[in-house]
Amino acid sequence: MANHCNGNSGGAFKMPEIKFTKLFINGQFVDSVSGKTFETRDPRTGEVIAKVAEGDKEDVDLAVKAAREAFDHGKWPRMSGYERGRLMMKFADLIEEHIEELAMLDSLDAGKLLKMGKSMDIPHCANMLRYYAGAADKIHGETLKLSSQCQGYTLKEPIGVVGHIIPWNFPSTMFFLKVSPALAAGCTMVVKPAEQTPLSALYFAHLAKQAGIPDGTINVVNGFGATAGAALCSHMDVDKISFTGSTEVGRLVMEAAARSNLKPVSLELGGKSPIIIFDDADVDMAVDLAQKAIFYNKGEICVAGSRIYVQEGIYDEFVKKAAESAKGWVVGDPLDPDVHQGPQIDKKQFEKVLQYIEHGKREGATLLTGGKPCGEKGFYIEPTIFTDVKEDMKIAQDEIFGPVMSLMKFQTIEEAIEKANATRYGLAAGVLTKDLDIANRVSRSVRAGTIWINCYFAFDPDAPFGGFKMSGFGRDYGLNAIEKYLQVKSVVTPLYSSPWL
User: Which parts of the sequence belong to the Aldehyde dehydrogenase domain (predicted)?
Assistant: First the structure.
């Protein structure tokens, strides 16, 4: 079944000027110590967009030194929460003034839809900054009721120098998911963007300086995980690591932290999120939601709804409508406003997704639609749906990170819960039903950090987000996220002749 393949990238499009390609350390754009650079490529064509400074251990050392100086002796942690919030608000305003340019950088670097970047991703970054700016002066300790003749209270102190390692699928969103609460807490930081998508992070560093955020507070070191990322994780003067990425690399991050200074780590890792659709759900709504849950952002999303469980009463109708609907899902140039799905991030990911599709066929799943590359050049893949998928198949167990839906049937609530939990991951889940009792039971039974009932991708700055099981630990979003960047200190003093205790 052919999808509408609009495939190749726009000939008439004029490449924007790439303004920032160096490292950003202590408020300055600088070359790497080695002078080395690496190429960042456009996944629409595979062509080079720009050469970017390649940071390594020596550059990480310089960035950490700048962040340490800014934390130990600089203004940022010594400002009131109100003052920090004011500068964060200014930073957010500057982002809004540059929405077009920032969205374009993520489209070029990551193959993301330009219309979504302009309407959602970049405005969401500004909103996240504002949310945490409002929280910066509301970080409270507690007064304690001690059993002895003493007065006690707790302080919540910024943890210090933070290393943020961010992924390539949502470069801007992930930057602010980590940077915003850390700034509010009063921390300084070194950000290591994914090597595939360094351009927007460097632009944000420039805007932070324009907003008046003191030098050394935010540093950006582009580079590769095995070099720059590893140096950050094992650095003896980094107080905390926040990582979003694969479960495999998450293990390495924890290991490096344990072997060095036992710095705390928060991890947001892979997912194999189920969507459970009950007989009483509206089938058209369910098809539309399931399709967006897996094909949005070309399936390159940690909470992609990649396992779709449909109750037997509506299964056949769902399959028929899902196949039909996939035909109207337009794959093509992400700069085209009529396109639904751009290219996978790079050749490696493109080939990995196609290999999983071959696994699915070999293991006996039925290819309902899609399954092939799209167009003559670039890393485009048709939206793909498999039926007759069994729980033990690779396509049902592994995070594919591509536009591949596994469609499965169930009979009872108990069976749906059991199947939904038959995964090593636990990031998110969707439940579609009009029955409140079913919604309540399933949402309490599925072991995942976020449950969306009759919706999906309903992210909000106030809703904590993170994983159960091998999807990691620690929460982004919400006031919980600030706690990751704070330490609790108890202060006790004796009381003499107090009229009450």
Answer: 29-491
Rounded to whole angstroms, how far apart are CA atoms 225 and 192? 8
What does DSSP say about strands 23-25 and 404-410: parallel, antiparallel, or unpaired? unpaired
11-33 pLDDT, tens per residue? Answer: 456 678 999 999 999 999 999 99
Taking Cα atoms as reference points, which of 249, 369, 394 lies closest to residue 307? 394
58 phi-psi bin (left φ>0, alpha ψ -120 to 50, beta other): alpha
Picking from 434, 456, 435, 437, the residue whose alpha carbon sits closest to that of residue 445 is: 437
How far from chain centre, in Å, is Cα 206? 22
- Tell me, what DSSP letter sits at residue 341? B
Closest CA to 473 of 290, 241, 313, 282: 241
3-class DSSP assignment, residue 42: strand
Place of tokens 């940071």: 55
Strand 143-144 versus strand 47-53 pairing type: unpaired
Bridge partners, 489 (sequence order): 155
What's the confidence (pLDDT) of residue 16? 82
Burial 277-297 (b: 16+ CB within 10 A, else e): bbeebebeebbebbbebbbbb
Choice among 69, 142, 157, 268 that is catalytic: 268
Whose CA is closest to 216, among 27, 456, 464, 488?
A: 27
DSSP secondary structure, 211-264, as one string = HTPPTTSEEE--B-IIIIIHHHHT-TT--EEEEES-HHHHHHHHHHHHHTT---
Residue 276 structure tokens: 């459970």
Residue 5 pLDDT exceeds 90? no
Task: Write the CA distances from 477 to 92, 94, 212, 482, integer angstroms.
Answer: 17, 21, 24, 9
The pLDDT of residue 4:
60
Residue 188 belongs to what H/E stretch?
Answer: strand 188-192
Closest residue by Cα to residue 322 from 410, 406, 413: 406
* 6, pLDDT greater than 70: no
| Three-class SS state of 294 | helix
Q: DSSP letter for 6, please.
A: -
Site of tokens 């929280």? 135
Dist CA 339 CA 9 (whole Å): 11
Distance between start and end Cα atoms, the chain = 77
**Residue 84 to residue 132: CA distance in whole angstroms:** 10
Instruction: Inform me whether the pLDDT recorded for 396 exceeds 50.
Output: yes
47 is annotated as an active-site residue:
no
Q: Would you state the structure tokens that stand for residue 306, as one six-digit string? A: 């990649």
- pTM for this model (two decimals): 0.96
State how far the Cα of 435 lies from the Cα of 454, in Å rounded to an integer: 11
Contact 309, 277 (CB under 8 A): yes
